[in-house]
Design goal:
This protein is α/β, with parallel strands linked by helices and 468 residues long. 49% of the residues lie in helices and 8% in strands. The protein is built from 20 helices and 9 strands. The chain has helices spanning 15-24, 38-43, 50-55, 59-67, 81-91, 99-112, 123-136, 141-147, 164-171, 186-189, 196-207, 214-230, 250-261, 268-289, 305-311, 326-337, 355-361, 386-399, 419-437, 445-464; strands spanning 29-31, 150-154, 178-180, 235-240, 292-297, 299-300, 319-320, 344-349, 374-376. The strands form 3 sheets. Strands 4-5-8-9 form a 4-stranded parallel β-sheet, with helices on one face. Helix 17 (355-361) links the parallel strand 8 (344-349) and strand 9. The chain starts with 14 loop residues before the first helix and ends with a helix.
Length: 468
Amino acid sequence: MAKKFMDEDFLLDSEPSKKLFAAAKDMPIFDWHCHLSPKEIYENRQPEDIAYLWLAGDHYKWRAMRSCGVDEEYITGNATGYEKFKALAEIMPGLIGNPLYHWTHLELQRYFDIYEPLSAKTCDDIWERANAKIKAGGFTPRELIKNSNVTCLCTTDDPADTLEYHIKLAEDKTFGVKVIPAFRPDKALGIELPGWRNWLFDMEKTAGVRITSYTALTEVLTDRIDYFASLGCRASDHAFGEFPYQRASKAEIELIFSKAVSGEKLSESEIEKYKTELLRLLAKEYASRGWGMELHIGPMRNNNTAMFNKIGPDTGFDSIDDREVARKLSRFMDSVAQENLLPKTILFTLNPKDNYVLGSMLGNFQTSEAPGKIQFGSAWWFNDNIDGMREQMKALANLGAISKFVGMVTDSRSFLSYPRHEYFRRILCALLGDMVENGLYPEDYDTLCAVVRDISYNNAVNYFGIEI
């Protein structure tokens, strides 16, 4: 007999998994890596309709719609909200096995009390019922965050950002959720990119100083780290398609910086040397402040040049790269650890071939500074599905201490993404419950319930040192 569709026991096949999920499901959420807009949170505007909530900026859905042959007019084009929603509804039944299918229906259930599957047949009814709920209230950014049981979230912010909306949110005592910045200096490191000199000009405006040398840049970035810290920042974030490691002297980096400022083309070696030395400097600054450093490794970005030129980056044209990562990552971490200045570090891989590479790297650099000082980050982006999450956690359990895992992140621009934490918790509890069911771990529910609560929330709060 078939199981009911996404009922209260969704993904929970054993009695142990159900007991564990009962312990985890009501834990708060600390969303320590997301792409929500602090400006939108501060302004707290009422959304127009479910199409705006679901389809504005969600490249996961855009990719799925393109795969089903939907014209771009109904994805990022000028079609009405209803027309875009209808296009999504029509393709939804075909997304068998895609996590979007589960996320979509978890969001319908949790936020709209709608339990019917979305399809062409149910499109108009769900459109009307969902929009009626939105119109009745409870769907502003702050309400969605608060009602999702979020206690703290970390946005992703460039060093050149003024952080004006973080300041306003910190001063606003009517909103009880902490919204703190995370330091994302990818544009500072991206010396080879066409926009690097424009970013440098923006950084000069924000800092109020001229940046005429590499030394001046590092001084400004260090000042910005202090400024971010003054607003509660406890994390940095970096993304690399290919992880860099090639050492150089300071004089050599100064020369590379000067060439880049003047618009000269840099060699691959010069680019890698600059990135290596700047990242080493930043890592040591993070360590001195007790921050966590997130390293997201493996995306191959902006593959479709025509669409990049038409609608820009972060629109659904990135994929997984397959470059080697172990040796350079190891040498980078070792070079900083030799100075006793390797910060708490979270390693994410976009390519699941590297699960065991990163999972085994953790043990090389653990210290008593923090439980799980070096972390294997949760299944990310193309991997935040049932199989991807299970495989990441199985690798971590096989190679390290899953009980110290800092858990799930939304990595999202959508205020409706928080049921993904429930999805993760169900998968976690199913994995551990299966171990009990199969005699691989005793029925010690005192220990196991504490573990799933810790992975769901407590470990991350303690790891980043957030006071909530």
